[in-house]
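Long-time lurker, first post. I've been practising inverse folding by hand and with some scripts of my own, and I keep getting stuck on stretches where the structure tokens seem ambiguous. Below is the full token string for one chain I'm working on. Before anyone asks, I'm not after the true native sequence, just a reasonable design that respects the backbone. If someone could post their per-position residues I'd love to compare against what I wrote down in my notebook.
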């Protein structure tokens, strides 16, 4: 299960969506979601949508990670 917040939408359906995932970790065994300011996420999402014509939405992945599951599943 993933928890994603929509940051920005292009307004029309397209081929792809992008999920941004940023974490904090000390040992790569556990991780917490990085606290990135919403304005920074919006700017990144706007830049992605401007740069890629086939992306319709940008999300921020806030899924917590239990031990030993750093990588995307």
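-- Answer (accepted) --
I ran through it position by position. Result:
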């Amino acid at each position: 299960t993933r928890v994603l917040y929509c940051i920005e939408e292009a307004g029309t359906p397209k081929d792809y969506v992008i999920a941004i995932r940023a974490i904090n970790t000390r040992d790569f065994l556990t991780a917490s979601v990085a606290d990135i300011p919403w304005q920074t996420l919006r700017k990144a999402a706007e830049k992605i949508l401007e740069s890629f014509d086939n992306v319709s939405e940008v999300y921020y992945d806030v899924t917590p990670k239990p031990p030993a599951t750093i990588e995307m599943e």
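A couple of notes from the structure itself: The radius of gyration is 13 Å. The mean pLDDT is 89. Happy to go over any region you disagree with.
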